[in-house]
Amino acid sequence: MEQTSTYISEPTSELLNIAQISHEIRNPLTLINCTLQLLDYRYPQLKTDDLWKQLAEDVEYLKQLTLSLSDYNHCGKLSFATVDLNNLLETLISNYLPLALSQNKSLTLDIPQKLPALVCDEIKIRQALINLIKNAFEATSEKDSIEVTAHFNEKRIMIAVKDTGKGISEDQRSKIFQPFVTEKESGTGLGLSITQKIVEAHKGSIRVYSREYIGTKFILSLPIFQKQTQDRKI
Ligand SMILES: Nc1ncnc2c1ncn2[C@@H]1O[C@H](COP(=O)(O)OP(=O)(O)O)[C@@H](O)[C@H]1O
Ligand SMILES: [Mg+2]
Fold first, then answer.
1. Ligand nearest, relative to CA of residue 180
2. b/e string for 209-224 if b means 16 or more Cβ within 10 A?
3. How confident is the model at residue 70, as a pLDDT?
């Protein structure tokens, strides 16, 4: 399924609401976290209670949600620089190798020795790739594999994240880029929509190929050069 690289600017009121809501949630959340830590200190035996564990997980989920909402709100504001993509991809994969090892999965990087330097917002592109890699980890089981590859032509760089996990049904595929669409108990459903927004803000595109029980491949296609090199907001 091909996602177009056309972008539609969000109504300002929607962006404001997201910013306000996540800000308003974050303040009491910080207080709840402090209270939990105090309770934990006063009553160490609480740690063994299942309800306490559930509470800690719920608070962590809320924390992740507010962080993702903030990412969602800011993913169109870019700060361009010339980035060494080989270095970015190698560092990223080495960060995830311990996780792959602990879950008995294979994680590989197969890229040309010298990819062209990419003009992009490095933090945002890393965030876009992390979202895909995290999803690949969450969709796979022991002995599965996750592979990151890249190739290029004179205008674009294509980066693929491929896994041999559970795949995505056809019905689900049409919805996965929408915010808050998730099949996970503690998912926010924001990862792919953030990735798509980041890629489209770079005038790139994202495609997904998937077969249930066989695996999934996401391909990001990014222009090597950006026409506008100052901050751009969508
Ligand atoms: N690599 C993948 N394999 C299988 N399903 C996937 C994969 N990536 C994304 N999905 C599906 O897309 C949904 C949305 O993903 P995402 O936006 O990252 O939100 P979340 O990870 O919080 O659920 C996931 O819940 C999952 O059902
Ligand atoms: Mg995700």
1. 1
2. ebeeeebbbbbbbbbb
3. 85
How far apart, in whole angstroms, are the C-alpha atoms of residue 74 and residue 88? 21
Q: Which atom of ligand 1 is nearest to the CA of 189?
A: 19
Per-residue pLDDT of 189-227, as tens digits, reads 999 999 999 999 999 999 999 999 999 999 999 999 887
The interaxial angle of helices 122-139 and 191-201, nearest 10 deg, is 150
Complete DSSP assignment for the chain: -BPP----PPPHHHHHHHHHHHHHHHHHHHHHHHHHHHHHHH-GGGGG-HHHHHHHHHHHHHHHHHHHHHHHHHTT-B--EEE-HHHHHHHHHHHHHHHHHHTT-EEEEE--SSPPPEEE-HHHHHHHHHHHHHHHHHH--TT-EEEEEEEE-SSEEEEEEEE-SS---HHHHTTTTSTT---STT--S-HHHHHHHHHHHTT-EEEEEEETTTEEEEEEEEESS-S--S-B--
Using CB distances shorter than 6 Å, the residues near ligand 1 are 131, 135-136, 139, 163, 165-168, 176, 181-184, 187-193, 216
* Whether the predicted pLDDT of 13 surpasses 60: no
- The model's pTM: 0.85
Task: List C-alpha distances in Å: 11 to 17, 141, 208.
Answer: 10, 40, 27
- Residue nearest atom 4 in ligand 1 by C-alpha distance: 167
Share of the chain above pLDDT 90, in %: 74
Among the atoms of ligand 1, which is closest to the Cα of residue 140? 3
Residue type, position 125, single letter: I
